[in-house]
Amino acid sequence: MTHNKLTQWLVITDLDGTLLNHHDYATEKALPAIKKLQKLNIPIIFNTSKTFSESLTLQKRLGILAPFIVENGSCIYIPKSLYPMKNNDESSHSRGQYWEIILGKPQSDISNILKDIDTPDTNYQLLSECSTQEASALTGLNIEQAEQAISREFSEPLIWKSSDKYLDIFINELKGHNLNTLQGGRFLHVIGNCDKGIATKKLKDILFSPEKNIKSIILGDSENDAAMLQLGDISIIVKSPSNYQLQKLITPTIHTSHEAPFGWAEAIDASLNKIKELK
After folding, report:
1. Sign of CA dihedral 100, 102, 106, 110
2. Per residue in 178-191, is it b (16+ CB within 10 Å) or e — as a string?
3. pTM over 0.90
């Protein structure tokens, strides 16, 4: 006798340019869709280039309590209040009210490698070396938000200032040191041997038993979202200025006609309608 598996839907979402407007980081028009998902018990999992403190601040502001993934798949955080038992995974550590699963490299290691390679640092500007005022000007974040953005633990976002030829050499040098590069909406992110897709798979393996049929709505807007979007049962590109490279890599289920945050809400409504059709 066979039993149907219980289906659990998840929303896994990028933030900048996807849930948050690319230009002013507005979220208000996404709030009705967030509330709709919460009523349906569909978790909203951030998978972002943002830091731990940035993600936590946004979760609190939007009334979200769920696991989240930071710095382009470098680390997973799971609230102990939802999952009190420590996972058997050896990479799981305690960090305050969260379990922390590190998949990437410490920022200090990345910084040391950048100093050792042949590419001169005049070819790029590191976010971690910006003042809060400079970071605010580069990102459009306020001073407090810029401070949180600078406080990297597992990545080095940078703005490339030289030619594409030297960028290719730079990326290959980093690969030789087991570092990955991912292009986001504003920055090129230097991280360990991880990405948003690897972290998504890991989180699902940790949280859900084989008895559950896990399906996901995955939303992104930039090239660094490609690996996680490939895993979506419903994959969504939210319209933004960062879509150009991503559209070459992914054919989404849905491509929104509006930018975030309304585009995010548009995508969630369309996804929920698709789920109804599948039943």
Report:
1. negative
2. ebbbbbbbbbbbbb
3. yes
Q: What is the CA radius of gyration of the chain?
A: 19
Sign for the CA dihedral angle at 253, 255, 260, 264 comes to negative
Strand partners for 45: 12
245, 24 Cβ separation under 8 angstroms = no
pLDDT tens sequence across 239-276:
999 999 999 999 999 999 999 999 999 999 999 999 98
CA distance 260 to 68: 20
The 3-state DSSP class for residue 213 equals strand
CB-CB neighbours of 195 under 10 Å = 22
Q: Are residues 42 and 10 in contact, defined by beta-carbon separation less than 8 angstroms?
A: yes
Residues 217, 268 contacting (CB under 8 angstroms): yes
CA distance 110 to 179: 8
Q: Count Cα neighbours of 142 within 13 Å in the Cβ-side half-sphere.
A: 4
pLDDT digits (tens, 9 = 90+) for 63-77: 999 999 999 999 999
Averaged pLDDT, 168-197: 95
Q: Is 27 left (phi over 0), alpha (psi -120 to 50) or beta?
A: alpha
**Beta 124-126 vs 155-160: how paired, if at all?**
antiparallel
The residue with tokens 């919460």 is: 38
3-state secondary structure of 24: coil
Kindly list the structural domains of the chain, giving each domain's residue range(s) and its CATH number in brackets, ordered by start. 6-104+195-278 (3.40.50.1000), 107-191 (3.30.980.20)
